[in-house]
Amino acid sequence: MLQVVYLPDANVPIEKFVVINDFDKMLDYLKFNKIKFLSIPPTDDGYDILDCIISNNINIKTIHIQSGDDLLGRIKLFFAFAKAYSDNGIKNDLIMKHEYLDAELEKIRKKTKQNGAE
Q1: How far is 81 from 64, CA to CA, in rounded Å?
Q2: What's the confidence (pLDDT) of residue 9?
Q3: pLDDT at res. 117
Q4: 57/77 Cα distance (integer angstroms)
Q5: Residue 101's domain is classified under what CATH number?
Q6: Count of domains for the chain
Q7: Which of 5, 8, 11, 72 ranks highest by number of CB atoms within 10 Å?
Q8: Is 84 exposed, middle or buried (0-12, 13-18, 19+ CB in 10 A)?
Q9: How far apart are CA 70 and CA 52, in angstroms?
């Protein structure tokens, strides 16, 4: 089973993870692959990913909501997932902290900001 990270703003590899940066490819990947772990940013895309997971009965053991500048958006997305999971009897994990991945994503953010400032 795969570990997948959806990173719409970056096309960088992360060791031990499949990184996807195109939204349509992400949705297709969800539908046609067995995914154990999925990491998504706290953006509007997260709600579409949630809809795809629920409407296609996709079983993902753990979903990680990435950190970002919008804490309120992150919390809203977390609770949208929690409510949808509860309403549909899904008992999988939702997490907001993944030590290794959060550190890697922070490195990517810093590098992106440095490159943008140059």
Answers
A1: 11
A2: 78
A3: 56
A4: 19
A5: 3.40.50
A6: 1
A7: 5
A8: middle
A9: 23
pLDDT exceeds cutoff 80 at 26: yes
In order of 18, 66, 82, 90, 98, the CA distances from 103 in angstroms are 16, 11, 25, 29, 8
Q: How confident is the model at residue 69 (pLDDT cuts 50, 70, 90)?
A: confident
Predicted TM-score (pTM) of the model is 0.91
Which structure tokens are listed for 109? 């953010």
Confidence of residue 111 (pLDDT cuts 50, 70, 90): confident
- Give, in order, the Cα–Cα distances in Å from 22 to each of 11, 38, 68, 94, 107: 9, 15, 19, 23, 21
In angstroms, how far is CA 47 from the centroid of its own chain?
11
DSSP letter assigned to residue 92: -
Q: Is 35 helix (H, G, I), strand (E, B) or coil?
A: strand
- Specify whether the CB–CB gap between 50 and 57 falls below 8 A: no
Check residue 1 and give its pLDDT: 86
Instruction: Tell me the residue range of the domain where 93 lies.
Output: 2-117
| The predicted structure's pLDDT at residue 29 | 95
